[in-house]
Design brief:
21% helix; alpha+beta; seven-stranded antiparallel beta sheet
């Protein structure tokens, strides 16, 4: 048996969104994100309701392996979710989103990603998950979501794949 200290990275960001939490939260769903996220193409979504719920599982394409996602917490009353993400042989992580009102017609989304490497390849991937990369990813997500909230349409973009 091999026992070692974990190699981890944690990143957090607060998005400012132009709609109330009750309107934003349902869009944080592997099915509904197809409406507003560029390059979001899950291969499989397993859900009783057809949308996000506790126990919802989804698979997204990736290199070297597909990513497996498990929605552990999905609370539409508290506007909070937690997802466990595994890229086999590479990393395991948690993603949390908590949405709070910011006046009557806006909200903030506190988003955190934490990854732990499972291999040397995972350690390299974590090394590339820099603060600069994460902030760019979060700002793109914020821009796409705000555009959708304002227009009801997906923002056409030439951004790279968003399978974070």
């Amino acid at each position: 048996m091999q026992v070692e200290k974990p190699r981890r990275v944690r990143r957090s960001f607060t998005q400012h969104l132009c709609a109330p939490a009750d309107r934003v939260f349902p869009l944080l769903c592997p099915v509904r994100e197809m409406e507003w996220v560029n390059d979001w193409r899950p291969k499989l979504v397993i859900t009783d309701s057809g949308v996000a719920e506790p126990g919802c599982i989804f698979v997204t394409p990736g290199i070297p392996e597909d990513a497996l996602w498990l929605m552990r917490v999905h609370d539409p009353v508290e506007h909070h979710l937690e997802i466990i993400k595994i890229i086999p042989g590479m990393v395991i992580g948690t993603i949390t989103v908590s949405i709070a009102a910011d006046g009557e017609e806006a909200c903030t989304a506190d988003i955190s990603y934490a990854y732990t490497a499972l291999s040397e390849h995972g350690k390299r991937a974590i090394g590339e998950f820099t603060e600069e990369h994460f902030r760019g990813f979060m700002k793109t997500w914020e821009t796409e979501l705000n555009h959708f909230l304002r227009t009801g349409e997906k923002l056409v973009s030439s951004q790279p794949d968003r399978g974070e």
